[in-house]
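Schema walkthrough. Field components (list of strings):
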Amino acid sequence: MAIDATKIIIGAPDQSSTTGAVNYAPTTATLPTDATSALQGFTSCGYVSEDGVTLTPTFNTANIKDWSKNTVRTLLEEFTGEVKFSFIQTDYDGLCAIFGSDHVTQSGDAITVKMGAHMAPARAFAFNMKDGEAKVRIVLPNAQAVVDGDITFVANQPINWGVKLDCGADENGESIYIHVDEDGTTTTTGA
Amino acid sequence: MWSSTATVVAWTERTLGVRTGTYPPADSPTDFAVVNRVGGECDYPHDSPRFSIQVWTDTEAGAEQAALALCAVLRGIVDEDVRINAVGTPSVTSIGRDENGHFVWQLTFELYCNIKVD
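Field assembly_structure (string):
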């Protein structure tokens, strides 16, 4: 393929003044199969820190060597997927994404988070990104959210709610879908 | 070709409701705004212009209030055009008073754009 600078795509959040780029839904929700269709049954979350979203797929392999110590075959032992980001917007929907709605209560403007030896339920997540007219969407069909790292409270920085999503597999054995739509041409990758 | 400067000029004019251009108007009205590109890298198809918006009014408080009002809604500028990917955090400065009695406050910020030409 010839080089084409216009196909260098960045991962800016696809968000508006009313809708965030991080969305979650029950694992039973109908998942999007492309980068552009409207999400159905998803809850939109707020601002993510300037560090953006990091997807870490890990393929653990084992090499089989022959008598002469040359690698003759590589076996996949394990695949894991992990997504990390930090909410800098503190609100009910974002906290529910991390802790689960059973452990976050809201009454008017008052929110209470109850942390303990429990986790939020596994959920589907969708991350919407854009670069001009190009769209990129990461879909995690079965992700487990946990708090990632310290939550620091300082006078001149937003509270960062670090989130780690462990990507479980769906009924097709896929843990992560990456949908790219560049000017109407849809490409889908499952991992 | 699309102009990020023209987009910022139109957004500022609509947001503040004052005449806005890339240089001070000759008739020097009481309130106006001036938008200039003051830097930023362009690595096609991505362009990251750095803009200054200077708000000129007849009171110090008015200029400050207008500059802060722009800051408050600046994130919404990404909705102005699909080519705007994101906007950086604005920096605000008091410039001073000119010989015609205008007080000037300025905000500077970066836009992150995809200026791909079809």
